[in-house]
Amino acid sequence: MAIEFSCGSCSAKFRIPDTMAGKKIRCPKCQAVQQVPGGEPEPEIEYGFKNEGKAGDDFWSQIPDSSQMPAANPYDSPAPAAARPQRRGLSPADARSRVAIPATALYVLSLGGFFLSIICAFFFALRWIFELDNVPTQQRIATLIVGLIGLSLNYVTIQGANNMRALREPGSVWLTLILALLPCGSSCLCPVAIPFAIWGIVLMCDRRISGHFRG
């Protein structure tokens, strides 16, 4: 059933379900609060709606209010990135022990090649002095110049290998390792010196070892 009554303010008539008897409603025309006849008075509610608000909703009560959250400062420095795990460093003694074998081998081979070159040059000089072979003077001079250059490069290889053992002069060490790959570095012993030169290059590419070189 429906209850018919008129608004006391604007005399507007409207029909209300009997379930609203005794409740207070708001006139949809003049917004005046009226009480529906035929029941006990109840608290004021909107016509056809019951305003419970967000407080009665569990979902909304669990969402934090954005006004209560601290605002981010745009001038704050970004959070530091996680530190990368660093490799364990080597002590100077450890670095020296790792380069000892290839450096000593290159030193001995270069020194041996140096003395063999001197011996060969001595026999060539005797043949030229006693004119045991008919070699033109220009060819003798060219052979002498090439021999001196080879001895000089061989001596550079010896010094570089010695610096490698003492962890000094990385530039000289790199030059030695390159010359040891060529016949001009260790003379006739070059095939034996090549594996040790490659070994030394691999060690010099390790920053934990090359970082201990001074000079």
UniProtKB/TrEMBL annotation:
Enumerate the Gene3D superfamilies for this protein.
2.20.28.160
Task: Show the stretches that span the lipid bilayer.
Answer: 105-129, 141-161, 173-205
Keywords noted in UniProt: Membrane, Transmembrane, Transmembrane helix
Recorded superkingdom: Bacteria
Keyword Transmembrane (UniProt): yes
Disordered: where is this region? 68-90
What is this protein's name?
Zinc finger/thioredoxin putative domain-containing protein
What organism does the UniProt record list as the source?
Answer: Blastopirellula marina
